[in-house]
Amino acid sequence: MAGSVLAARARLGVWGWRAVQTRSFNSDRPDDLDRGAGAIREAGGAFGKKEKAEEDRYFREKTKEQLNALRKHHENEIEEHKQEIDRLQKQIERHKKMIKKLQKDD
């Protein structure tokens, strides 16, 4: 182990070795992966409350936009289905007329 440390120091020099050490110390903390909130929010206080309020407002707006888009999509689909129903009813009437005409001809 000591030999590999010396070899690494020799290859990287003092500053390169410190960079390796710094990176290894920072990556040793598993709680860095689980953090959901930022440092300001964790500190609490007025800035934390403001950040939470802004995030909540952002997600409310996004949710509202998504619901409006979904509502518009369903309204468009309903309109298309109504048009399809009208088209099919016209075809039914046309076929009924053709049947009546054929029955008269017999």
Mean pLDDT: 79
Taken from the alpha-carbon principal axes, the silhouette is rod-shaped
Spans of 5+ residues with little confidence (pLDDT < 50)?
Answer: none
Order of helices and strands: HHHH
Quote the distance from N terminus to C terminus.
Answer: 105 Å
Characterize the structure shown.
With 106 residues, the chain is mostly helical. 91% of the residues lie in helices and 0% in strands. The chain is built from 4 helices and no strands. The protein has helices at residues 2-27, 31-34, 39-43, 45-105.
Topology:
Blueprint: H1 2-27, H2 31-34, H3 39-43, H4 45-105
What brief labels describe this structure?
91% helix, mainly alpha, 106 residues
Concise structural overview:
This protein is mainly alpha-helical. The chain has helices at 2-27, 31-34, 39-43, 45-105.
